[in-house]
Amino acid sequence: xxxxxxxxxxxxxxxxxxxxxxxxxxxxxxxxxxxxxxxxxxxxxxxxxxxxxxxxxxxxxxxxxxxxxxxxxxxxxxxxxxxxxxxxxxxxxxxxxxxxxxxxxxxxxxxxxxxxxxxxxxxxxxxxxxxxxxxxxxxxxxxxxxxxxxxxxxxxxxxxxxxxxxxxxxxxxxxxxxxxxxxxxxxxxxxxxxxxxxxxxxxxxxxxxxxxxxxxxxxxxxxxxxxxxxxxxxxxxxxxxxxxxxxxxxxxxxxxxxxxxxxxxxxxxxxxxxxxxxxxx
Amino acid sequence: xxxxxxxxxxxxxxxxxxxxxxxxxxxxxxxxxxxxxxxxxxxxxxxxxxxxxxxxxxxxxxxxxxxxxxxxxxxxxxxxxxxxxxxxxxxxxxxxxxxxxxxxxxxxxxxxxxxxxxxxxxxxxxxxxxxxxxxxxxxxxxxxxxxxxxxxxxxxxxxxxxxxxxxxxxxxxxxxxxxxxxxxxxxxxxxxxxxxxxxxxxxxxxxxxxxxxxxxxxxxxxxxxxxxxxxxxxxxxxxxxxxxxxxxxxxxxxxxxxxxxxxxxxxxxxxxxxxxxxxxxxxxxxxxxx
Amino acid sequence: xxxxxxxxxxxxxxxxxxxxxxxxxxxxxxxxxxxxxxxxxxxxxxxxxxxxxxxxxxxxxxxxxxxxxxxxxxxxxxxxxxxxxxxxxxxxxxxxxxxxxxxxxxxxxxxxxxxxxxxxxxxxxxxxxxxxxxxxxxxxxxxxxxxxxxxxxxxxxxxxxxxxxxxxxxxxxxxxxxxxxxxxxxxxxxxxxxxxxxxxxxxxxxxxxxxxxxxxxxxxxxxxxxxxxxxxxxxxxxxxxxxxxxxxxxx
Lengths: 281, 290, 251
Fold this sequence. Notes:
The structure holds three protein chains of three kinds. By secondary structure, chain B is an all-alpha fold. Chain B folds into two domains: 2-37; 47-289, MetI-like (MetI-like fold, Orthogonal Bundle), CATH 1.10.3720. Chain B is 77% helix and 1% strand. In chain B, a hairpin with a 6-residue loop joins strand 1 and strand 2 (63-64). The radius of gyration of chain B is 23 Å and the shape is globular. By secondary structure, chain C is α/β, with parallel strands linked by helices. Chain C is built from ten helices and ten strands. In chain C, a hairpin with a 2-residue loop joins strand 1 (4-15) and strand 2. Classes of the chains: A mainly alpha, B mainly alpha, C alpha/beta. Chains in contact: A-B, A-C.
């Protein structure tokens, strides 16, 4: 039975390795929560930072993150969904579609700080948008395109081919078929992609470093051409650039950011799994 | 009827345009990097840039040798790969082959949650836990070291490696495993003797994509691996990666200046490296699909 | 000459390297029911799908020859969506869309621009009656079509196709998944349809072909072997292969 014993040992080791990876994640979240929850109250969430960030709240950072996320979604979602429609419904297996796929893979692999450089060069300088919400949002939008395309493509491919066949056989045109017999049933998957894109845009620091992020603003941004504060950048600043800040403010900020991002991811995962199980066809 | 046909014609043109935007953006990114970065090479030699051992951007005259930065990136990446590849592949095997359905969903969700945590948060947590820990355990002057960076980045690369390796493992035709079992092998033996080899191209691709992710990582590594742009000798010293250099110094440059363009030149190097890695990984992935 | 509705000349169809139809010449008369029989892979479904250009959806599709409907070449510049409106198709597996019964039926007319609710309701009722389904579902038109039985779903698909007012209706092995009672109901519906439509029925059930079709065509390996009045084909076929297939010696 030596082989069986070896197997048991091997499988136990594998299981432990899995735990080694998963448990720290849970520990990390708990750790931040425990150390930070005391700081998080209504005042923290809705007040401006004061006393050189050492007191007060993180309201402008939350607002800035919200603007950035909304702005980038407005661009990424239609662009990504339509691109996925092109790839799945129109392009087939041509050479062009293989090149597009390669481009998507590469966009997905570009380091986030390089996106920051790109955003700086194109939006801030060449297009003269300055360090602004719109520059940051557009940079984040381009960064998120592969994610939205991939999720949308998966959503489109999960719609049974028979829906399309039936629609075409009734003399319905291609675009109308996509719009009425495919898209409505791909929506949950597309929604998942949108939520994941939002979560990612909320948490990324490097792309916004040179394109929008401000160290401190006394007022909320009034237009898309203003600078803005943002949660991830704020966390970076108060943990590396400002000495003597109370621990709980740092952990509190981290907690707000992590809670925001993880809850969105969880939401997306739940939608996705319910969609996969509950498909009525 | 004709109005509808015209409307559809324009919609389909729009769809086509959106389809090719990915290509447009890749070209745009590379072009703008080149636009700013190539100005650098008018005044500075490529050889001195790539192989120079001194990165002193604010001295007079400035020196822009990126070798310490490249080595910094490589060191951290190597360390991260040594951790994440074996662990990640092991996780992938467990998830794909051994775990029950419920465990599998749970584990996959856990790995996805890890992927979701913003890198600045990981950097922050690493700063307050991992860095002091390393300092204490190894008795170092500072815990901001390549080792700390490697450990953290090893974790961050796991989700990529686990998910792609898991796809590769489940893509192995069942007959391989069944054949081995029929010949009397245990499940474990079938796994590490047959499936592993069959899934190897995909596992290599997964590792490469994980490495690609690590090389591109900025915030976490900036916050915990120190910021000393010197030639690294061991894991136990602070290093500077290419990404951290760009992130840390861009705010201090005046545009246009040699320093500013130099940072873009580093950006070009990063872009090319990750392009090559992704291209090669994709090549391996397509070998599976055949 | 006016009696010919569909005419296929020298029809040759390939999918990548596979030759599905070889030099087929065939005519379908107005308002007749033509049964098409033959073993699997004989090309009968390919032939059917050529009539409403559904083969176009397959990227490997290559065709030589012509198909004329009412004298017009359907591959020669005719709008393919308008063609499919004139030539409807019922598939082998019932494929209801995941919507209510009423929405399923009105899907086609709505997509073609009919918005008036009264008119849509009338179309729904008329189509369901023609498909012999109205009495069974008239009280639950707003329930999901997925809750119907297999036979009812297939008749729903017939009603859905009739709602777009085609001239020709193609049936691709419509009863292959159905029980005998549902099959009988579908066949009853097909019989009645002949008064207003031209019908081509592909079936792998030889007895069904004998019951329903007025003329029968026998396909084998992509070729049209024999075509003639159903009674004659079944009692005194000219070709040995036809006889062998009908007798059940193969297929």
